[in-house]
Design brief:
Blueprint (H helix, E strand, L loop, with lengths): L9 H8 L15 H11 L7 E5 L17 E5 L16 E3 L5 E3 L7 H5 L2 E4 L2 E4 L17 H30 L9 H17 L14
Antiparallel strand pairs: 1-2, 3-4, 5-6
Helix pairs in contact: 2-5
Length: 215
Amino acid sequence: MTPAPPTVTRKERLWLACRQKRCCYAPVVVPTGRDVWRIARALDAPLWSFLVYFQAGEARRDAFLLDRTQPPYRLALAKRPGRRTKTPPPCVFLLRTRDGHHRCGLGDRRPVLCRAFPSESLDGVLALHDGGACTCRTWSLTDADLAEELALVAARQAAAAEYCTVVARWNARLLATPEGTAFDFLAFCDFLLTAYDEIAAGGGDPPRGAEADDR
């Protein structure tokens, strides 16, 4: 029996119709741990092949330590070299088809932040705000199914809360080591995959309806 094709929302159709996918050139796309675990396991790819890390500019719950004497870091999707110098380089997963359309190579596996874009919840009220990242249209609430967008925003918040908990475990482990101990990024990647493998093995899903504040 042929499986039914995935449901495509109105917002998804509009996004797929955009040729440029300028939102995929955003300076930084910060995924959650569950996002990168899902991508790594689906593609059988090491985290370092599609992630970079950068110093957190301020104290954040999703910032991980590699050395107790150094600032914490955050994850971001890697970029691939672009031909133009006046625009940021594109996401490592952005593909260009023969007809000139840009497509996300991850499809439905793209981070929940990307799937929710440009929806956000402001004090429980849904708003579509692209921050100037979109050049193909001006988004409005009529472009989206409100229930679907609220579910995506809630999923993003829940995944962020879950990731903050995992990062806190890593940071506590590092701070419990003898002074002078340092870990490299590969060690954090291994920890992250193992942590989410354990969550998946226990049937663990992101906490439902959790209000995440990763700052």
